[in-house]
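Hey, resending since the last one bounced:
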Amino acid sequence: MTPEVKAKIEKLVNENKIMVFMKGSKLMPQCGFSNNVVQILNTLGVPFETADVLADPEIRQGIKEYSNWPTIPQIYINGEFVGGSDLAIELYQSGELQQMAEVALAS
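The structure tokens again:
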């Protein structure tokens, strides 16, 4: 990963309380796993931003190296890597995701 790509990823992660790197956008997810994450966050009613990894191959590869996580989507809350679709579902069902989002938005 180039320093430029790393800086771009860090800027997105740090400037957005809830940031999702996904295939497609929040208005038009391009895979089922990305859609799951969008639906969960929409259900929570929290503001979030997305980056379409299909539109930027450097980000698509770079985010995997940045998080040391092999799959997309990837969720960041308050600058911290949370996980992907499966973890989002588990955290949502336990109520933890809502707590994490509320703490991030309150800070």
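The chain has a mean pLDDT of 95.

Sorry for the duplicate.
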